[in-house]
Amino acid sequence: RFREMLDYKSRWYGRDLIIAPQNYPSSQLCSDCGNRSSQTKDLSCRIYVCPECGLEIDRDYNASLNLLKLTM
Ligand SMILES: [Zn+2]
After folding, report:
1. Residue 22: its pLDDT value, please?
2. Which of 2, 13, 35, 49 has an alpha carbon within 20 to 30 A of 58's alpha carbon?
3. What distance in angstroms lies between residue 63's CA and the mean position of ligand 1's atoms?
4. Each residue of 21-62: pLDDT tens digit?
5. How far does residue 12's CA lie from ligand 1's centre (Å)?
6. Which H or E run contains 49?
């Protein structure tokens, strides 16, 4: 019974599974203007700051927004 639910759930969520190219620089792209910045290679930096448009955003949130764009 429990397994059935897991199967169902993974199938349901699998529909929206995002397959990103392995080299997709989701954490280096500005989710607002698309500018690519290499400054975020420093993983201790939690905030992404775009030198192009001035966007300041949580690094992981910025990356997830970029991944979301891949599906649209
Ligand atoms: Zn930007």
Report:
1. 76
2. 13
3. 13
4. 778 888 889 999 999 876 655 566 788 889 899 999 998 899
5. 33
6. strand 47-49
Residues less than 5 Å from ion ligand 1, measured at CB: 30, 32-33, 35, 50, 52-53, 55
CA of 26 to the centre of ligand 1 (A): 13
Among candidates 66, 68, 23, 29, which has minimal Cα distance to 51? 29
Which of 27, 9, 32 lies closest to 67, judged by CA?
27
The helix or strand, by DSSP H or E, that contains position 7, with its residue range, turns out to be helix 2-14
**Structure-token pair, residue 28:** 């280096």
Q: From the CA of 71, how far away is ligand 1's center (Å)? A: 20
